[in-house]
Specification:
By secondary structure, the chain is an alpha+beta fold. The protein has 2 domains: 67 residues, SH3 type barrels (Roll); 53 residues, no CATH class. Helix content is 40%, strand content 17%. The chain contains 5 helices and 4 strands; from the N terminus they run αββββαααα. The chain has a 4-stranded antiparallel beta sheet with strand order 3-2-1-4.
């Protein structure tokens, strides 16, 4: 098994922060979810492997140098809407302060919202301004 050096691990942690949505491309494991399965990154370990909560319930890690995933951005789901509204109801932050919204999302375990914010800023702002998801 190939292990990532410290610099690579830090780069992976920046590229795949907790809550990032990924899709499995390939995994060298008999128990692997099928290619195309989505999942949510829960962390990156010291070897560079991604810790993923797969949508099918699997918890297999994506092994650095052996397995492959691609970044995806989940769409505007009911869960994302509920998580946005829950943060707004706290009154903790201006909803346009994206750093604060993201920080609260991570703190509260709103991984779907955290992943959504990375690729759907326009849709997020539209929802905050109008209350409409489309």
């Amino acid at each position: 098994m190939k292990m990532a050096d410290r610099k690579t691990v830090e780069e992976l942690r920046k590229r795949y922060p907790e809550g990032t949505r990924v899709e499995l491309v390939r995994m060298d494991d008999a128990q692997a979810p099928p290619p195309g399965t989505g999942g949510t990154v829960t962390g990156v370990d010291d070897t560079g492997s991604l810790l993923v909560r797969w949508d099918n319930g699997s918890g297999l890690n994506v092994v650095y140098g052996a397995d492959e995933v691609r970044l995806t951005a989940g769409g505007f789901t009911d869960t994302v809407k509920e998580q946005i509204l829950a943060i707004r109801e706290t009154g903790e932050t201006n909803m346009f302060d994206m750093r604060a919204v993201r920080r609260i999302a991570y703190r509260e375990g709103y991984s779907e919202l955290a992943g959504f914010l990375d690729g759907h800023l326009r849709e997020y702002v539209h929802f905050i301004m109008t209350g409409e998801t489309g």
